Amino acid sequence: MTPDLTRLVQLQELDDAIEDARRKIAAHPQRLADADARLSGATERLEGVRQRLKESQEARRTLEKDAAVFQGRLTKFKDQLSEIKTNREYQAMQHEIATAQSELLGVEEKVLEHMLEADVIAAEVKEAEQGLARQQREIGAEKTALDQELALVQTKLADASEKRAALTTAAQPRLIALFEQVARARKGIAISVATRDGSCSVCHVRLRPAVFQLVRQNDQIIQCESCQRILYYVPPPAPAEAPVTHP
Ligand SMILES: [Zn+2]
Fold first, then answer.
1. How many angstroms separate the CA atoms of 38 and 31, rounded?
2. Confidence of residue 246 (pLDDT cuts 50, 70, 90)
3. What is the Å distance from ligand 1's center to 6 Cα?
4. How many CB atoms lie within 10 A of CB 30?
5. pLDDT tens digits along 210-239
């Protein structure tokens, strides 16, 4: 292969590496944001369970106040019982006491239900806290890995850019101009390897036999007549030698 053609093939490899690195760098903020979004999911779950616990506790406190009111009423009725003169009044008061007692019992049962419910929710809070802590650790490690990966990609980009600059300085300006022109028109791919059966590997159009013949020689700049990409050829590997048999 001529030095010019070799340089153009290398230039394409460098451009591919540069493009790949730029894409990864551009995607980095979103990858960090995705990781953070997963963390905020775990935070929201914890907040939701904590809110349920708070509501359950508030409902219980309201019931406890109701219980205190009923308890007060019951005590008052019992005090009044000693001052009652008639049998009829006594029975009426007994009825009031029975009602107040049943109301008090009903509220106390509900208080108990809320206490049991709070125990269940408190366990859920603990679980959600542990889940969040686990997520924080995992996502912290993930973001560290992403940052390390970014640093590596940035190094690769700087390296490839430096090599590209050296290569374009060494090559003929006319060739670099041709390469850049085709690359711009063809989504950054200016070079195409010809397949062994004589097609352009990128646009898949079959080359004319005379063109393919020239491409196989790898000694001049030949463009695909269909996509304009600069063609080169990779000869098949030499046939392997017969395996040596050991007695
Ligand atoms: Zn082509």
1. 11
2. low
3. 19
4. 10
5. 999 999 999 999 999 999 999 999 998 887
The rounded Å distance from CA 79 to ligand 1 centre is 105
Distance from Cα 237 to the centre of ligand 1, integer Å: 24
CA of 206 to the centre of ligand 1 (A): 8
Alpha helices in 82-207 (DSSP H): 87-170, 173-185
CA 76 to the chain's CA centroid: 65
Burial of 129 (0-12, 13-18, 19+ CB in 10 A): middle
The burial class, CB within 10 Å (0-12 / 13-18 / 19+), for 141 is exposed
The residue with tokens 């790898």 is 218
Q: Tell me how far the alpha carbon of residue 207 lies from the centroid of ligand 1, in angstroms.
A: 8
- Give the distance (Å) from ligand 1 centre to CA of residue 232: 11
Nearest to 16 by CA among 151, 224, 156: 156
Question: Residue 224: exposed, middle, or buried by beta-carbon count in 10 A (0-12, 13-18, 19+)?
Answer: buried
Cα of 172 to ligand 1 centre, how many Å? 23
Please check whether residue 185 is in contact with residue 226, taking contact to mean a CB–CB distance below 8 angstroms.
Answer: no
Query: What spacing in Å lies between the alpha carbon of 1 and ligand 1's midpoint?
Result: 20
The pLDDT of residue 244 is: 62
- Residue identified by tokens 């028109």 is 185
pLDDT digits (tens, 9 = 90+) for 140-190: 999 999 999 999 999 999 999 999 999 999 889 999 999 999 999 999 999
What Cα–Cα distance (Å) separates residue 162 from each residue in 11, 100, 156, 180, 197? 11, 90, 10, 17, 36
Please name the helix (run of DSSP H) or strand (run of DSSP E) that holds residue 222, with its range, or none: strand 222-223
